[in-house]
Amino acid sequence: MSETHSSLLKPAYPEWARYLPVISAPLILFAPLLLTGKVLFWGTPALQFVPWWWQAWQQVQAGVLPLWNPLNGMGAPLLANYQMAFFYPPNGLLLVCAALSGPAGIAVGYTVLTVLHLSWAGLGMALLLRQLGHSWLAQMIGGIAFGLSGYLVGRVGFFSMIWTAAWLPWLIFWLERDIIRAARLKWSLGLGASMGMLLLAGHAQLAWYSLILAGGWLLWRGRQSFWRKLGSFAFAGIAGVGLAAVQLIPTAEYLLNSQRASAVGYADTMTYSFWPWRLITLLSPDFFGNPGHADFWGYASYWEDHAYLGVMALLLALLTLGMLLRRKGEGKANILMLWGLILVSVLLALGQNTPIFPFLYRSVPTFSMFQAPARYLIWLTFALCLLAAIGADAWHTPTGRGLYWLRLGTAGAFAVTLGAGLTSLAVKGVRMTFIQSVALTGFWALGVGALTLTRAGMAKRGGQAVWSAAALVWCIADLCVAGWSLLPGVSPDFYTPQAQVTAQVQAATGTGRLYIAPNVEYDLKFNRFLRFQDFNPHEDWKNLPATLLPNTNLLMDVASANNFDPLIPERFGLWMDALQKQPAQAQKRWLALMDVGAVETIDPFAPLGVRFDSLPDGLRWRVLNCSARAGDAKEALSLWAAAAQEGAQSALILEGAAEADCLPGQKAAQPVASIQVDWQRADGYQVSVQTTQSAWFFAAETWYPGWQVMVDGAPAQRLPANEAFWAVKLPAAGLHKVSVNYRPLGFAFWLILSILTVLICIFLQGKLSTRK
Description:
By secondary structure, this protein is an alpha+beta fold. Helix content is 51%, strand content 10%. The protein has 25 helices and 18 strands. A hairpin with a 6-residue loop joins β2 and β3 (76-77). α1 (20-35) packs parallel to α4. The longest helix has 40 residues, at 92-131. The protein is elongated, with a radius of gyration of 29 Å. It starts with 19 loop residues before the first helix and ends with a helix. Residues 2-11 have low confidence and may be disordered.
């Protein structure tokens, strides 16, 4: 991709050691966290990823495949939760860590995996740049800029996004090496494996953006013999999908039965549209403050719009704009292509701030499937790293007029830094974030200017290696200073279950679930603990899991009626939305039907700032004497709401082919019955039900496909009940054994398909190796 360039540095040490700067840079970034024994926790690590894997480990330890999560919502799929990425191979480390140290060990494992993935991302970019013909220094600058990019470092708590983004440069590397530059149709194990890992890594949005970019790269770089190369690319894609089938198919089923089955709502999609003013932060990342410094005041969240690559990388990328005036042919076309990609990235990232994305949302498939248009900045990050490498290969000390302007610019950078400092003393009313960020930008630019001025002289004196090392140190220092504040850490015992809290909650809930109203959950989450403007603690961080915000309840084995998963069953979501619209007295009947044993409310006088108020009448299982019928879920919800407002505690409204068996004027009631639990685990249970008449067995569990019910050893028809739950007929008086098991249709087949794909890929690679 690049043209002939000067030889910058050819180290005499082993090949692998060439990449130590790009591999070790994330270790420097994470050094303050690792050396103090802290782990990542802020936001989704505490509320999603660590609790999910703790629940998964507990099930694995019990000999159960973690297909179902019985403790959140009224039950929800677990393994099908895509962002958990259960089958992503590196995540196997989390099971080992869980076995050794419980939830705290999982947090340690995630922190280590984050460092490794940032190194992997940088290494992939460096190897791609090498494949494209760039010098060692260009490889290092591009790799470091990608691995420590604001796009990744700003999102370190969103593990699945880091995992997925780390595979983007590898995808393009194998595409370039094995397909675009191949002389004939070729099977690429590297590309197929990279696609599989990309799809298993757990973030559908970034995986899709990466595949689109790979397709565009093939279209541009593989214009000659395009259809042959497209065939190789498609074959690798089929292999990748086959490798990931065990995860993709359950997730696809979950998506079709989730609140996102049709599309993400327009308002939700557009919430994190890129704020145009944040373009300034490509040069001065903290111009609008930084939550790590407790002074962020920009639009929405800091991390969604964060795309800083360092002053050096940006200036080198901007250098390529001048090269457009001097270059011709393929080199010029490649630079134009990359700047075009940046333009497209920014236009899409702007979301609702232009008419383009709203039009695409309404008119083009897939644009309505994901939220946060700002995440299109992954293309900008990728393209700027490549442009920075091109600029690095053209980086030299100018002469004549160019030298004059360079000296002037370097002096200007010093003046900016000095002037910003003096402004902070002399001028009142200017936001300190402006002054501090501009001063820091001037400082980093001053270093780049000094490096440029000294490069020719150092080369003449044989100091090229020293100069290159200084350039990399400056690049890493810039990105580490920008990133250190974005890594809030806490002691691993933050994740250790708190026995006193668990006992207190279980005393209040009994065998039922805990419920937190949306306004209480929001206040606790975003006003008390996880302020978008401030990562710093305002109280003991251990109070966060002690309030049992979902999904921290999983750390303490407490059942919660709430669920903080990216996907939730659609019926559960509709039920929870309708619940909020009910009068207070009717809400209690809804909560009782949900088997809610206690409600959490804010109490500033309580030790934890919350209290747990017990609710009577909640039951997980009920026996009801008769049922009414509804044509669909919407009608069932409406009929239940009407019955609850009238005071009916046990109305049963079924959907489907069931005939209404309540007599005119008769209401469902609980006949004389007893229910005894025979055995119970995460993916099923058996209960013995003694009843004096034929009746309906009602379960306060989310209706979701894949559950098998047996009554007295015979398969029984499970029907949706009261919109969100299910019921099954008990045919006569007497003792009945009701067995319930979660057995997703075809899961074993998809597992076998993934295993067979792995074996076929190994076989093909072996065949090719034998031919060579």
